[in-house]
Amino acid sequence: MSKLKSLQEAINQYVHPGDLVYASGFTHLIPFAVGHEIIRQGLKDLILARATPDLIYDQMVAAGCARKLIFSYLGNPGVGSLHRIRAALESGQLEWEEYSHFGMVSRLKAGASGLPFMPMNPTGAADLMENNPNYRQVTDPYSGSPVVVVPALKPDIAIIHAQRADIQGNAQIWGILGEQQLVAFASQRVILTVEEIVDESIIRSDPNRTIIPGMVVDAICHVPYCAHPSYTQGYYDRDNEFYLAWDAISKTPQGAQEYLETWVFGLPDRAAYWENLGIETHHRLKPGEQFSQPVNYGAY
Amino acid sequence: MEKLQYNAQELMVVNAARLLKDHDVVFVGVGIPNLACNLAKRTHAPNLQMIYEAGVIGAQPARMPLSIGDPTLVTGSAAVCDMYDIFSLYLQRGNVDVGFLGGAQIDQFGNINATVIGDYNQPKVRLPGSGGSMEIAAWANRCYIITPHQKRRFPARVDFHTSAGFLTGGDARAKTGVRGGGPQAVVTNLGILKPDDDGELVLAAIHPGVNFDQVAENTGWPLKQARDCQVTAPPTETELTILREHLDPNRIYI
User: Fold this and answer.
1) Across residues B59-79, what is the average pLDDT?
2) Which end of chain B is more exposed for a tag (fewer CB within 10 A), N or C?
3) How far is Cα B237 from Cα A299, in angstroms, rounded to an integer?
């Protein structure tokens, strides 16, 4: 059965006010188009979880979508601060819950594996543990040594972008894998966006590359260029110029609002957004080609 | 011979690169640490293995990576894994020799604050937070810190322990049971600080033309000088050429 839907339909059906949303992707495959559609549909009171909130959550916080943020690195990667989130935290307008990257992905690992918590070795850095009661120390029942644990994270909704999938939602990803698979298995509902919808036979020709199986996917949306200004390996490069530009745009609330008016509310969808970026940007972000060698799976 | 000219960033990159050994497995960050690793790989450490926290192992970036997850890190790399695996199979398991760390504050015992200035719950300045650094500082065999030498960056005590150095000194770090050796050197534009037997950072080497008072004035605790304090060798023409012509030709970081 096809799970294909338009992005508008999928958000309308699966994302509700107050939901714990995890839009995944570590630098790579960040689903900006979905963040923009959530802003357009006016969803509020969301709990936004991401290891690196990145520009996508800075924009969603600027748009007033969030009441709480769960994160492990709060920066504009390679540039500096996330100004809108930082202002919201410093003024007490946004609740937060903080982990290290490993703490965050350990929570997802537990959620994705159906376990209540995950153990980690101690790090000696006590201050985060003291300020976040979700970090607990227990005793290893076998050796008697101290072990740090964090509880399972089980988002209401996962938003995941991938290079390609078939209409059942079997999705293949190459390049940086981030926490995509963990988020898909940890969440109650999964919205998948892809650069390309392909025939089932293409997925089955290379099953080792399937990171997310259709059985955990609720909706598939065909959204080319969904990840801009982040990137999709082999499809388009990271737009570092925009990451730098956002630093200036987002210095003031007004700057961020003007951006949202033009690039989110002023446009119907991602196709219009990509068109609006212009041919020069399309050309600048187009990577060269470097193909992998096919492997022989064998005919049996 | 005409004296070579170099800036503070180049001086720090060159001295950090020299700390790396051939066959080291390094957890690399973008910017200055990335340059130091690539410089070491092209000089004395051709078998250096670069691992990035985004889950890339054995990266051979064709261009200067501008973010920790730049696609150039993946193309031509030896392996890619997910985020849980990079932190568990590689770092927690003990397969990483060297980690690079940075932060707003580094204290007398090599503890780092990258989280907050002021009170945690009512932050005066909210900084990025840990990312990978809490575990890198704990579990890499050796950690190196590269930072400009300014008094505000070197307080006696950090406002927040984002990652552990030698904590309060003595056996405080060892008592926590962490596996890694902690910070082994802090490379600055004035010299190199290293922990003494008590875990206190002392001046272990000074760059050419810098004197001890200059370093002490820019440090927030009464700085001691190691008995065998060295003067670092200035950057060589080879090192500077590789940096300027091959690694960072657009001078983004140097």
Assistant:
1) 91
2) N
3) 58
Mutant choice from B72, B95, B115, B134 vs A, greatest count of A C-beta within 10 A: B134
Q: How many separate helices (H) and strands (E) can be counted in chain B?
A: 7, 14
- What gap in Å lies between CA A32 and CA A256, rounded to an integer? 15
| Whole-number pLDDT of residue B91 | 97
pTM of the predicted structure, to 2 decimals: 0.96
The partner residue sitting opposite B176, judged by closest CB among A78, A122, A181, is A122
**pLDDT > 90 fraction of chain B, expressed in percent and rounded:** 85
A287 Cβ under 8 Å from any chain B Cβ: yes
Best A123, A129, A147, A210 residue to mutate vs chain B (most B CBs within 10 Å): A123
B window 112-131, beta carbon within 8 A of A: 115, 120-131
Q: Does B66 touch chain A (CB under 8 A)?
A: yes
The torsion of the CA quartet A86, A87, A89, A93, rounded to 10 degrees, works out to -150
Q: What residue type is B90 in one-letter code? A: Y
At B2 the pLDDT is: 60
How do residues A126-184 score in pLDDT, each as one tens digit?
A: 999 999 999 999 999 999 999 999 999 999 999 999 999 999 999 999 999 999 999 99
Cα–Cα distance, A31 to A53 (Å, whole number)? 12
Q: How far is A223 from A84, CA to CA, in rounded Å?
A: 27
Looking from the CA of A178 toward its CB, the CA atoms found within 13 Å total 27
Look at residue B68 in the predicted model and tell me its pLDDT.
86
Cα gap B98→A185, rounded to integer Å: 33
